[in-house]
Amino acid sequence: MRLSVRLLSNDVLRFPENSNVFRFGTAMNPTLRNVNLTIANGEGWAVMGSGKGVLLETILGRHRVAPSPQGGLFPFLNNFDPPRDPQSSVSQVSFAYRQRIASSGAFYDYTARYGAVREEDRITMRETLSVDPQTGLQIESEEIDHLAERLQIRHLLDLPLVALSNGQTRRATVLQKILQRPKVLVLDEPLTGLDKQTRPLLMDLLGELHRQNDPHIIIGLRPQDPLPDWITHIAFVQDDTVISGSIDDREIVKLRSSSATFGASESVHVWPQASAGKTLVEIKSLNIGYNGRKVLENLTWTIREGERWHLVGPNGCGKTTLLSILTGDHPQSYVQKQLFLFGRPRTTLATVQIQRQVGIVSPEIFNAFPRRLGPEMLSARDAIATGFESTYSYRPRTPEQDIRIDTILSDLGLGVESGFDTSQPFASLKTSHQALVLFIRALVNHPPLLILDEVFAGMDDTMITAAKQYLRKNLSPTQSVIFVSHWEEELPWPTSEILRLTLGGESG
Ligand SMILES: Nc1ncnc2c1ncn2[C@@H]1O[C@H](COP(=O)(O)OP(=O)(O)OP(=O)(O)O)[C@@H](O)[C@H]1O
Fold it and tell me: Is the Cβ atom of 168 under 6 angstroms away from ligand 1?
């Protein structure tokens, strides 16, 4: 009889000593150098810093580690009998964009959710969560109900997925991954898009799972995210360097406090309070509901030239719905008799006339933007230029339009000298650059009304600082802005008018 002795490893993750990380297909210029990182069983790790995306991608097997780690990056997976492979055991909650993007990469109609739900979009959250897409196995409905309750989305389980708000979808996405029971779960910026009330619910649930080591959790956090109490260690990634240690480590404390200013320091420009400018938007007694459920009730709102508004409220309170009435995307926009846009009754305006005057960035547009490759691909520059006519497809550009694009790029520190190549396909840009391109797309046409809905989601800290500075310095004094964010510290200007929506339709 042969006895096999297996050495059990206490390490969840281990990079070989002083390893380098390369993009696949390259052997020069490592993206990360001299990495020394080991995550032991029981430790709670967060990844932070402007380069955190690269480290998380490496953990997910998207880059080459040299020297190659003996026994893999996840030694503890060899403790299982038979050993587990990282492919099926290490899972990522990806918020990059929703999976229901047409697989061809074509633009999908994100406004479909506002009208009658189409047959192909009828699939409910419960139906989606009930089957593990990897194994095809059925997931217990009690478990779904229990976890959905923890994240306060149980009452939405039987709604079509397409009807969920951005924050509700994010919670459903996390839930789906937890239900698939990976051994390691990697979440990058899980708090983005979540309202204040929900953040501790998610962090508590993740902490509980982490304490049971089922799964081990690694999270990417932004500087403004509160550090959950179960995080014991931080890997800070700056440029090509990873500095790691316990949360009390002096260097880690210093790095955290220096990144916490979050681009807020240069607030030189103080905006005028309520200007006496022309009225751009006037809404009176707006009521919108779905299937008898009120979302917006008796809402009245006036926006004048030059005003900076902060639109706030919990997930699902109707912010996106309200904005879709203003942009004309919502089927009930056209019938609003008490809605005036840019000096005219909405009922006399074609939707395209509205859209040419509104520059908008939102999670919905980020998800829906076409990402085709091949002959029909849009370059980064083409993608920006779609903003001149508020379209989603290629339009030839005039030389003046190219100059306008170059000016904004250079104001944001992305001019020619930065090495940012605008002829690259939009679809192959990293998420943070895609987010920045769509931000510039919203600005190019000097729109009188700018809607910035979760505009910084996915951007790295340096880009956020540049974008905030741009907004402070480069907008015209008559341009109005509606800024939507669950994070007050994201506001680029010190004071704003506030429209606060609540669940159930009230506003204040
Ligand atoms: N077609 C639909 N059918 C049923 N309910 C819908 C539909 N479309 C939206 N809803 C519901 O309307 C509510 C408002 O959604 P909306 O996207 O406007 O919220 P939000 O304030 O933008 O949320 P978040 O902060 O998560 O982005 C949500 O509860 C959503 O589930």
Answer: yes
